[in-house]
């Protein structure tokens, strides 16, 4: 029996004219871990408290890679149809550039997903952030039948806010949090299905089998 038969979401792939999102196999996963460990925040940029994505950001190799892997595997280990988080590797022109996450709680009832992402420093500011978000929104709205996609960013995270603004998200309040010992506002954003302006031209989703839908709490087509 193949792994994908037991754990069908590993077969999910989204392709758009700009980017390919897929669940990394073992070999690619090591590459993703190395990209994460090489850094996702520019030390010259003081506009952020660094968003603690997976807890690997402050340590050296190989501990950084190991922490990334723990974070990655924990998402699969904790997976339930009622609460899941899927980490998709992103390739542009065959080059691994980052990770696009999509998650949901009680998707079968709420039809709401939330997303997060990071891009290796060497590949930032080239439009990949927007391309990855467009691709995952295609999965959410066209593939899974989501009614809403949520996201959030620190009020100071200009690139992340710019990606959301470019894709038509609307403000949905703020949450005050503590980050690196400082009080910081997180801006919550939401994109309703009716406001999704994504084009499906040249986009395809594969692996959204009945088994994958069941794991995601997504309706059958
Ligand atoms: C947020 C992130 C994914 C954006 O990806 P990216 O590929 O760099 O972004 P893009 O090239 O698609 O640019 C998106 C927009 O941000 C703007 N932008 C990018 N970097 C910027 C910067 N350092 N300062 C200000 N604006 C910036 C771009 O000009 C573009 O704006 P536009 O649509 O008005 O042209 C990436 O910067 C990243 O991985 N950051 C570290 C991790 C992180 O913060 N993740 C999000 C947590 S909420």
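-> sequence recovered:
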């Amino acid at each position: 029996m193949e792994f994908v038969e037991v754990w069908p979401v590993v077969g999910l792939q989204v392709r758009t004219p700009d980017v390919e999102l897929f669940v990394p196999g073992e070999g690619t996963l090591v590459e993703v871990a190395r990209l994460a460990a090489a850094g996702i925040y520019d030390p010259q940029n003081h506009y952020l408290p660094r968003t603690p994505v997976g807890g690997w950001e402050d340590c050296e190799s190989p501990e950084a890679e190991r922490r990334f892997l723990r974070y990655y595997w924990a998402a699969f280990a904790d997976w339930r149809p009622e609460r899941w988080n899927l980490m998709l590797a992103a390739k542009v022109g065959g080059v691994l550039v980052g990770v696009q996450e999509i998650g949901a709680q009680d998707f079968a009832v709420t039809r709401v997903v939330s997303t997060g992402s990071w891009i290796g420093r060497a590949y930032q500011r080239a439009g990949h952030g927007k391309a990855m978000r467009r691709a995952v929104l295609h999965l959410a709205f066209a593939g899974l039948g989501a009614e809403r996609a949520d996201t959030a960013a620190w009020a100071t995270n200009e690139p992340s806010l710019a990606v959301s603004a470019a894709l038509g998200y609307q403000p949905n309040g703020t949450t005050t949090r503590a980050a690196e010992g400082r009080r910081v506002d997180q801006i919550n954003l939401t994109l309703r299905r009716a406001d999704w302006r994504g084009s499906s031209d040249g986009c395809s989703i594969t692996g959204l089998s009945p088994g994958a839908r069941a794991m995601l709490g997504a309706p059958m087509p």
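DSSP finds seven helices and nine strands in the chain.
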